[in-house]
Amino acid sequence: xxxxxxxxxxxxxxxxxxxxxPLVYLDNGATTQKPRQVVDALVNEYYxxxxxxHRGVHFLSQQATQLHExxxxxxxxFLNARSTAEIVFTRGTTESINLVASCFGEAVLKLGDEVIxxxxxxxxxxxxxxxxxQRRGIRLRVIPITDAxxxxxxxxxxxxxxxxxxxxxxxxxxxxGTVNPVREITAxxxxxxxxxLIDGAQSAPHLAVDVQDIGCDFFAFSGHKxxxxxxxxxxxxxxxxxxxxxxxxxxxEMIRSVSFEKTTFNxxxxxxxxxxxxxxxxxxxxxxxxxxxxxxxxxxxxxEQELTRYATERLRSIPGMRLIGEAxxxxxxxxxxxxxxxxxxxxTLLDRLGIAVRTGHHCAEPLMRRMxxxxxVRASFGLYNTREEVDVLVAGIDRVRKMF
Length: 404
Ligand code: PLP
Fold this sequence. Notes:
alpha/beta, Aspartate Aminotransferase, domain 1, Aspartate Aminotransferase, domain 2, 2 domains, 7-stranded mixed β-sheet, 4-stranded antiparallel β-sheet, 14 helices, binds pyridoxal-5'-phosphate
């Protein structure tokens, strides 16, 4: 039983007002709100456990280490990875992708090698590869999309050459909401002997992820988008790959022994975790994953799918409404434009009505160009949003429309 009122009561911020109106928070694609269970865990750890991890013999350090490593196990279970050695804590999706770009770039990529991305990527899955174009002379190949916002798999199949070294694509588009067929994408790449990185920033919060089922070699997501704290994220990497790659940053934690003659590196996953990790945030992330797991990812998905269906239907009835992204398999993201109202004007006026949406290019400028727009308004739903909030959004948009 999905008890939305009980769920909402776990998120104190949802009870606040902005401009004297009840907050309608529809910017979950940017970041999600945090339940008490997460914030309480952070406060509790700072007040009663805090000590640096992995390096102290004393009681608190050992307790903090146990919590941190238990969190890694929670993440492993959430992704269904084979081992905690495959779970690297990072600051978020951006850092996870940069880690792969940097280490994979160093270990594998040579002048003229090719990396495949898609037209619907977030900048954080474009720019790290472009840096490698400049630094190592690699080439980016781009999977085109259809007008509805789906990947052209026929074109994808044609992009493979004997220089293809990696495929890096998003699981769910943060603009179009398209859920990409990542299993098929991975299988096609593996048929060419090419590894795959999946950007899971927009999928981990909304659907059950099983990295073994997808078959991918790397998977990245951010804690703050899945009801966890900011500043923590995850890179899943197949052990064979993480073993093969050189370290990312150097420093404490990632070494076994250091001398001026020879330094040896720590075991996985610590080889990739230089310096003091955010061991409090990892606890918060684990509580967030516990939270969504207890609700059930399938129940969350069903709730959000129903909300997205309802919102799409209601939005379509607004005169001048143009939906950007109409793939049949969509997640809880709706991008739109109304008549020739500038997205920024729409967003600003909705804000005065207490409705938080995102406007602009959503860190996906190439996608904006592909869709022939400068920007969009984006409503993105979370596990706590309601039909009533969709009604407020629709009434708000209609009110703005009539003003113009
Ligand atoms: N990838 C996608 C698809 C995203 O939507 C985002 C954030 O909006 C990111 C990557 C970057 O995530 P972060 O800023 O948490 O590193």
